[in-house]
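Anyone opening a protein record will find just a pair of labelled lines. A complete record is shown below as an example.
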Amino acid sequence: MAKYSDVLVVGSGISGLSLALKVAGFATVTLVTKKKKADTATNLAQGGVAAVLSVEDSVDAHIEDTLRSGDGLCNEEVVRIVATEGPDRVRELVDFGVRFQKGAGGVGFDLGMEGGHSVRRVAHASDLTGKEIERALLERVAGTANIEVLENHLAVDLLLASKAVGEVPAGGDRCLGAYVLDRTTGMVESRMAGVTILCTGGCGKVYLYTTNPDIATGDGVAMAYRAGARVANLEFVQFHPTCFFNREAKNFLISEAVRGEGGVLINSRGEPFMKKYDHRGDLATRDAVARGIDAEMKASGADCVYLDISHKPAEFLMTRFPNIYAVCRQYGVDLTRRPIPVVPAAHYMCGGVLVDSWGKSSLNNLFAFGETACTGLHGANRLASNSLLEAVVFAHRGSLWLQENIQSIREQKPIQVQDWQTGGAAVLDESVLIKHNWDQVRQLMWNYVGIVRRKKRLGLMQVRLDSVCREIREHFHEYLLTADLVELRNLAVVAELIVRSACQRKESRGLHYIVDYPDKNDQDFKKDTVLEQ
């Protein structure tokens, strides 16, 4: 028997938790998260939330910085909405219990500086901002009626009206919820809902090296695409310039705020090099800095470059970056005395499920927020610390739309869905089948679809990926579901979408740099790359 709620939220990061809290006053909410509640990209966010929070700043300045970073592809209406509504959403986080660092004398916010910003506007909680936000929101959710939280539950596929009745209903297909795998029991449940919200984060695990948590397998984008929703701009994968280079440290990010506070990128000879690649130097936007590091490493043959902030007072560094200091020290690097070895790593997906200014996708009753969505804010390259801001602004806007429309959604004609069918599927007892394909996809994506791309490599990638994905699809239908199999299937779909999108954009813009088309082509490509089934 399918279980029903007004709103099904898939994902427990900042957007999912914010949305759940806001709609729980007028709707029943089921929140599905595939591991523990705090296993999210939000929890790892170091930098902070960018918003206009001082008299030295202005909405127009924030808009201008965002548009410049987005390299011609931002939706200007959305940029204005987010920059205008952002300050209230940050103050609302304070009301929810988030403890941002305070300014001088305990007044206002201690605002950080990051690449691409013209002024200090990043509210932060030392270098553990995401963890602090996650803590506060989870505490609120725990004490809120009408929210059911299902940990260790993984959404498999969206439930569609067309699949249930055998044809597309008048008015278009609509989402009815999702099939959800209980990782503890191995059973697949039908979770029906009036509205389904995808807040599953990004897809960093599609690459061999990433700053993302293990959960970042592109689940929301893959499910939405399979269901017929439009996705957009997936060629724009942001590589964070400075991931800690250490074989034992897993995916540890060195925040851009380190450069904002005076950190300088140097090569193995101790020479600053960013001015060679961009006039803004170390505070250039992330796309420029990642390409600069990539070029420097290729020119020298070095495995990494270095980020030096040792010229700053030790007490300041240990206070401003306590977590970064502690982790680096754990692995033998005292950042107060020596430079930090760093390399670029896959970090953020600027594209995603295409949504409007309320978070609605092209599939009725399906929304997407946070990194899962393509709102038009980021364009071809996200401005630092705009992601958490986007998440709270759109979660708020989505809640307003839902409050206004929840009654009409409840009155929609009910449709009964079929339970998950296992057929003659066998138990997967050879995990090597999963691991081999998982490793193949990630290694191929890193080698062929990285920071600097070539037409020939993209073509080769399409050929290789086709056979890998065919094998993965066979596994999915032949074996009983496991979380690893579900994630592998999603990872392969997202890899295909990234490559297809990259092949279609025959220009270099923002995060998509292709040697064969080194210039920007506004006449033909100043538009979103939209894909659908």
Remarks:
- The mean pLDDT is 92.
- The chain has 16 helices and 20 strands.
- Residues 432-519 form a domain with the Methane Monooxygenase Hydroxylase; Chain G, domain 1 fold (CATH 1.20.58.100).
- The CA atoms of residues 161 and 174 lie 6 Å apart.
